[in-house]
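re: the backbone from monday

yeah here it is again, tokenized this time
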């Protein structure tokens, strides 16, 4: 199954690459919190596999205060530099997982890594994103002054126009990469961002599917994904956003990972935060029946 997914990813990105004149880069969302047991060799393997399918870089999701923000980040950049390729890394500060980041910690991490050859830059500026965090939007003018970063957050909980009206972002990333329930995916939300941004950079989300059943995180849903992977790449080729972010490379808890399965990276399933595999399979079957079998 993984080989089929990898082949399909490569085919889609190759097709996209032939017509994506305005797309600067295609990234994959990467959960750093899953990498506490990673070695440099594990990072090298992930980076090599992603680069082979024409992905340009990993967007490194980091929750505030996570231990993996230390050694794991160092290993990631070491691996990227060891490979000596054009593959790049950039930061996504997760303001939802463990709450808001302290702005000085944000400045410290950007300052530490933005000059690294493996960090992705938009022109001369290091590109930085977030997962949520609009309540801390007032921190970003001083963060940008201190680091010189180009800021494209995901403040999707607000919607495009209110997020852009904050006035502190240089572009926006939309987390809306899935239809809700049994509905088909459209580009309605993408267009709302393009309209609000008025030519400023848009980062568009692409994902193969979404299923999660993790009571410990108060998450339990299934969204339609039968043709979503194909449909979203068609949308990308039509809309030509400046950036694309695949959600995700390794978020196993939400089932939309396109990267390899790694037994050492199932942190999200620890501590009774998810049901057993048997229970999960039963819930999945019930949800399939709920969505697709007429009453």
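seq for it, each position gets an aa:
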């Amino acid at each position: 199954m993984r080989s089929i997914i990898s082949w399909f990813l490569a085919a889609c990105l190759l097709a996209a690459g032939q017509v994506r004149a305005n797309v600067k880069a295609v990234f994959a969302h990467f959960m750093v919190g899953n990498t506490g047991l990673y070695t440099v060799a594990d990072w090298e393997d992930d980076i090599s596999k992603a680069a082979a399918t024409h992905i340009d870089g990993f967007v490194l999701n980091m929750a505030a205060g996570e231990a993996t923000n230390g050694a794991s980040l160092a290993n990631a950049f070491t691996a990227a530099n060891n490979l000596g390729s054009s593959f790049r890394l950039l930061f996504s500060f997760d303001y939802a997982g463990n709450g808001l980041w302290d702005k000085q910690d944000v400045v410290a991490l950007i300052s530490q890594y933005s000059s690294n050859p493996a960090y992705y830059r938009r022109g001369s500026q290091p590109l930085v994103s977030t997962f949520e965090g609009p309540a801390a939007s007032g921190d970003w003018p001083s963060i940008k002054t201190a680091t010189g970063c180009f800021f494209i957050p995901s403040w999707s909980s607000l919607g495009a126009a209110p997020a852009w009206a904050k006035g502190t972002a240089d572009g926006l990333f939309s987390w809306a990469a899935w239809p809700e329930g049994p509905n088909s995916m459209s580009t309605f939300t993408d267009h709302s961002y393009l309209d609000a941004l008025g030519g400023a950079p848009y980062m568009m989300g692409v994902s193969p599917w979404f299923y999660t059943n993790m009571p410990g995180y108060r998450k339990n849903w299934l969204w339609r994904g039968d043709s979503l992977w194909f449909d979203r790449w068609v949308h990308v080729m039509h809309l030509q956003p400046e950036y694309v972010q695949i959600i995700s490379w390794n978020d196993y808890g939400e089932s939309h990972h396109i990267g390899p399965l790694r037994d050492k990276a199932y942190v999200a399933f620890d501590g009774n935060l998810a049901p057993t595999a048997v229970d999960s399979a039963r819930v999945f079957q019930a949800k399939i029946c709920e969505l697709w079998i007429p009453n």
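The chain is about 35% helix and 20% strand. Confidence is low (pLDDT under 50) at residues 1-8, 15-20, 280-295.
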